[in-house]
Design brief:
heterodimer; A: about 325 residues; mainly alpha; about 70% helix; about 0% strand; B: alpha+beta; Alpha-Beta Plaits; four-stranded mixed beta sheet; two-stranded antiparallel ribbon; globular
């Protein structure tokens, strides 16, 4: 038996009794970052495979949503910062050993690429916006340039968007101090999840039947891979060191069993894949419900992962000090 | 690189918490926050029980994952030593360092929001003094010095006594030693 009790007062905010530094803001940022990467990848893929006739939305209009998604995520990321006026400090140095520093600089590269990706299909996808841009000096020439370099732009989107999608997982998996996160499966898992949540947007946007069918099949494939990666993550924890096996027990019989399986895996992955299968034989309601559940599942994946990772720790102190007792004394 | 170490004798520590009070006074740590703390660890089965008191804080690791994970360089080593500090003017409060510390030894400074931690009282160390917790210990169970100086008291104690560090398996190379 080992019992370790903190006998002097320690109740540091967001650190005690268990780590709680990151909540929905970070989960939402990771979710939106993954979705933005997915949107960019589908758009680029539609351009590279010249599927304008069959995947019209993905080819011409989808890319516009990527900066919207990423900017929403960046907003909540900013909200999470405790010392907001120092946000510019991310860009006064580059720290090669810090995944967060890499992420900050990748975002600098990815925004301009998002813009040129949108411009490359703007005339076909959003002609009214293209006409507005043409009124600005050099606007028309910029559109011409992007349009003629469409293939090259799509090609350069692929590595950066894959990097962005994987980064959202690597950001967490790089923390060896948090056993539940410390798995190489997290990067690919978040990338695939990002692609999956991006795949359902055209379905929700009401695209033509042929394109909808493509994204339904794509999403079923992605959810299958996601389930496989979750299985691999759990296996890697089960075969890991003592801390990782303890972290696994949080979702296998432990306090996060219900949130992980009943709030995330069942409604966020298993139900939508079944509904999408049914939707293949018709049933628009099933397809739409599945799409909404996939978006929910994508967010829940990040939310439960962020939460469980923080609870999993190398330390196991019982805390004797109760701040509520101090409050009662003051009253 | 000069390596500073704190050596704490668990046989003479009585868990009085004076080290915690000394730190709060010296560093003006706000109410409700702590840079150091005392743990009472009990091992064994009744009636064969063994208790030790451990005064704990940042371990000023040789391979500090809080430093490697900091995206702005705010977490850094002080003047070519293993003393890990946070430059408040570079800190964004992203909390990556808190997540990266296996000892949960970092805290958020309120109301500003930058990250704070034990500094081994480097402002005293540069004057040749011991950290406040070491100076304030009533049982003289705490020692401080350079581990790479063979003649220092900390080096002598680590040569002559059995000791442990906390969770060396993290690979962080902690530099707070507990004499057994």
């Amino acid at each position: 038996m080992i019992e370790e009790v903190l006998v002097t007062a320690r109740y540091n905010a967001k650190v005690d009794p268990v780590l709680g530094i990151w909540t929905w803001e970070i989960a939402f940022y990771l979710f939106m970052g993954g979705m933005a990467a997915g949107i960019m990848l589908f758009s680029a893929w539609a351009v590279l495979t010249r599927r304008r006739e069959t995947l019209t939305f993905a080819h011409d209009r989808f890319a516009l949503w990527a900066p919207v998604a990423l900017s929403l995520g960046m907003t909540t990321l900013f909200l999470d910062l405790e010392y907001k006026i120092h946000v510019f400090r991310f860009y006064t140095s580059f720290e090669p050993s810090s995944p967060m520093s890499w992420g900050a600089w990748v975002l600098v590269l990815i925004y301009p690429l998002m813009i040129v990706q949108i411009l490359s299909t703007l005339r076909d996808g959003y002609p009214a916006m293209a006409r507005l841009l043409e009124r600005i000096p050099l606007g028309g020439r910029l559109l011409d340039l992007c349009q003629t370099r469409r293939g090259m732009i799509a090609l350069s989107v692929i590595p950066l968007a894959v990097g962005l999608g994987i980064y959202t997982g690597v950001l967490l998996s790089a923390f060896s101090a948090r056993p539940f996160w410390n798995s190489a499966a997290l990067g690919p898992l978040f990338l695939i999840s990002g692609l999956s949540t991006a795949a359902v947007i055209p379905i929700l946007a009401g695209v033509q039947r042929q394109e909808r069918h493509f994204f339904e099949v794509a999403d079923m494939t992605l959810i299958s891979v996601e389930l496989l990666l979750i299985g691999l993550l759990l296996v890697s924890l089960a075969t890991g060191a003592a801390q990782q096996r303890e972290a696994l027990s949080l979702v296998i019989g432990g306090e996060y069993t219900v949130p992980f399986w009943l709030w995330f895996v069942l409604p966020g992955l298993l139900v939508p894949i079944v509904f999408e299968l049914i939707a293949l034989w018709g049933g628009r309601a099933f397809a739409l419900t599945a799409a909404v559940l996939v978006v929910y599942g994508g967010f829940m994946l990040r939310l439960v992962m962020v939460e469980i990772g923080q609870v999993s720790s190398w330390n196991e102190y019982a805390i004797q000090f109760d701040p509520e007792l101090l409050q009662r004394l003051v009253q | 690189m000069r390596t500073y170490a704190m050596v704490i004798d668990t046989r003479t520590c009585i868990g009085c918490g004076d080290c915690v009070v000394a730190c709060k006074n010296e560093n003006k740590v706000p109410a409700g926050l702590n840079r150091d703390w005392v743990v009472e660890a009990t091992r064994g089965e009744y009636p064969k029980l063994q208790t030790e008191f451990r005064s704990e804080r940042c371990n000023h690791c040789g391979h500090a994952t809080c430093v490697t994970n900091c995206p702005t360089g705010a977490s850094h080593y002080w003047r070519d030593t293993n003393i890990v500090l946070v430059a408040a003017e570079k800190c964004t409060g992203c909390k990556a360092c808190i997540a990266a510390c296996p000892y949960d030894a970092r805290l958020l400074m309120h109301p500003d929001g930058y990250v704070d931690k034990c500094t081994f009282c480097h402002h005293r160390v540069e004057k040749g003094q011991d950290p406040a917790c070491v100076s304030g210990c009533p049982t003289r169970c705490m020692y401080f010095g350079q581990i790479d100086d063979r003649d220092s008291e900390v080096s002598r104690l680590l040569r002559e006594r059995r000791y442990k560090t906390l969770m060396p398996e993290t690979g962080n190379r902690p530099h707070v030693y507990y004499l057994l």
